[in-house]
Here is the input.
Amino acid sequence: EHPGWVFAADEVAHAIILEQLSLFKNPSAFDNLRPGFLTPSLLRSPVTTIMVVAMIIGAPLTSGFESFEFGEVFVQMIFAGEEGSPFDSGEYWRLFTPVLLHFGLEHLAFNLIGFCIVAVRLEPAIGSFTFLALCVAAAAVGNVAQFIFGNALFFGGMSGVVLALVGFGLIWRALWPTRDIGLPSGIYVVCVLVTVVGFTGILDGLTGGRALANWVHLGGLLTGMGMGLL
Here is the structure.
């Protein structure tokens, strides 16, 4: 109703907006920017912060992926161990840990940026406990789907969880506009298209010849939408 006005949902958001405004008016202020500027966002999204750190720590574990030379930690994080799936071996952490593995810098960067963009908006809106439950459920459903329907053993990445967060936000935006988390419409469109078009194989060339984990994507998206309704 008032062009040029910005609504701040709370005092933390207000402080961040004022900081951004000062940087916009004085770009040289970036020279003195300190990590403490990020503190309000990190405090509002503790689960997001922990998962980002875990993704970064997990990145070096896949350095031998192309030559199939893995470290012991990596072997313990993939979905299927020597005794088979987590359901066969009782190693239930494997339902989640593949999301922390990324095969290449581009893979990590794409998922890291996508996760942060959505997660810092969604976690404060739904609470850290619900957000954590959403991430764990999306990881488990997506990984199981990829193992069963994709007939895959080596897969990983946070993309299924990212799509779950997007699916959750999409449901809220459609059914409860007052709970919209503020993502641009283009993000919803791109994520749904990637999920659908991925099954055609057209996008595999963008991943260096490796097939996309399409069942992870679909499982994550549907889990997010389902939990959004719930």
